[in-house]
Amino acid sequence: MEKAGGFAGSILYVDLSQRSVTKEPLSQELMGDFLGGAGINTKLAYDLIKPADDSLSPGNVLLIGAGPFVGTIIPGAGRCSATAKSPASGLFGSNTTGYFGTLKFAGYDHLVTKGKADRPVYLKIRDNEVEIRDASHIWGKDTWEATDAIWEELGQEYEVLSIGPAGENLVRSANIIGGKYSAFARTGLGAVMGSKNLKAIAVYGTGSIEVADVEAFTQLLDRLYKEFTAQAGLDGWRTYGTLISLEAMAKAGLYPHKNFQETGEADRCIEAFNLDNFAKLKVGDVACMSCPIGCKHFVELKEGKYAGLKLTVSCANAPTQSWGGPCAIEGWEEIFRCVELCNRLGLDYYDTAGLIAWAIELYKRRIIDNKDTQGLELDWGKADAIEELIQKIAHKDGFGEILAQGLIEAPKRIGRNSAYYLSQVKGIGLVFDPRVRHSVEVVSQSFNVRGAHDSALSVTMLPRTREKMIKFAERIGFPPRDAWDRVLAGPEGFNAARLSKWYEDNVTVLDSLGVCQFAPFQRPNIALWAELYSALTGIKKDATELLKTGERAWNIRRAFNLREGAARKDDTFPERTMREPVKFGDKEYSPFTQEHLTELIDDYYQERGWNSDGTISQEKLDELGLRL
Amino acid sequence: MSEVRVTKEENCSGCRLCALACSFFISPERAFSLSKSQIRVARTDGENRFKVGLLEDCLGCGICVDYCHYGVLSKE
Known about the structure:
Chain A is α+β, with helices and mostly antiparallel strands.
């Protein structure tokens, strides 16, 4: 078979230690078994990263992949995936963002970077011309300054991924920032770049992405666009982005407050993150490549303390869930200042805010004092101190140096039973409080292979009925009918543990194809994605096979973690959430019981076909054709 | 002959659907390419704000207008 449609057809390997660059064809086997993007990244990470190698050693490998849909006009097809061993967890690290898809036009589906440069460098990729360039003049600069400097050198047509001081300083919650706003946010992959002395990657391409069956593809595209644009609520998505659910989420108690000591009161959340005020500060829509929605925001503060600040805000709900809730900052002005700092310094909102919220609680409880913080007076919502601490973390300065060690090591450094107050699982900060609502996103935070919520977005965040769940399953094409009795069971028509398996597989498919995983893109039937994949690439797959490839990648991620020593005992929730109740207004939610957790994990492992100790059964490996 | 105009450039989100649609529907290769389209979307001033320009060989077919969901382009 000739080169498949949709794919650029090559993997670019860069060895920074050897200063060598090689280009290899993307194999038919990888395309067929793993679709592309996140799926192929997963397989390559499993094959290339040795279990003994530390996440910050030259042996770690950073993979950036863009699936076969990226670069086409399939709506939402702008998602790229980054993968490495995570400095935050020591396990499988991954995330996606809607930037850097032009890698495909340069001729590469995947960029694989290993080794360590002997001095700061950045990568310039322009079609076949790949250069490892000196970056000593931008080392130490924040991501905005570094990106501007590269645009000045190469031109603004380049897409630029950069780390900030946090990544350079190997901060465990460091991220990678694209185009000054679009983050490969979680699991600390910015520190992987920093450990390689790799400041930035700039790409521009003049190539093309071909289509295997133009007629079928065009017809399917028409069908998809008609279906997609007929959805209700797309205008709201454009105006407010992920804040579209703010009011509903606030009323459902989904904003943890003051380091998960309580749940943010609905009225406080709705007022503190007032949507009208947000809309007044927004001056334009920003979109990922090929997105007809444009749910990112160009914002300008015209008055007040930060007058003149212009920035692009990606997922606008994320800073409210981190700086707004756990740290209790109120009002968009200070929230946007935190966004600016994190984007410039290259820090993940959730883990950084989680560490700071934890430090505030320790301070309030007098477990630490101003000698520990070196004079910094910490308090809820005290934005100036919080913003100073963000900077100290990025620069590993004073007390910030302890928090920069991440959610596993920082409590060991402080001791004094401080770990009890930290809301993390496997080194990744929680987003949702497991005591309040037992949706797929919430319960999967305990057993997710990557940690936290992002790879299991579902429709169960808000209360549902079985009738609605069945209707939705029919619409999207999964879970299959023969699984309904066990998966779509329970008071609201779903078993969150079992349904997690299906959403994780689906999101892995979307991440592999290169499609956004936000709600409007989860509405088309999986069979339509399969038809589009087949027409675009020429590799025939139906809906069942498509989901199976997602499952295959997910199992390799589990195998990656097992190889690193992870076990069932790691699939848990923070001790406090299993001992103390939590208040939400006049309601009180009980601690998450061990009995319930055991039941959930049993259900989840069973749905996945794993053994009760969390290892993958031979039967499942055989079914997926995996020899690990 | 019809003509495509950039009527509300300030609405451009940088999605590049216009350019990709142009390359796919108009080029003889029927392939997606940013550099082979007759429309250019370029970042300005180091911000996520964009300028949109049509090249000389634009046929005025309007496929870019159909794929622009932000009201930047119009066909006259």
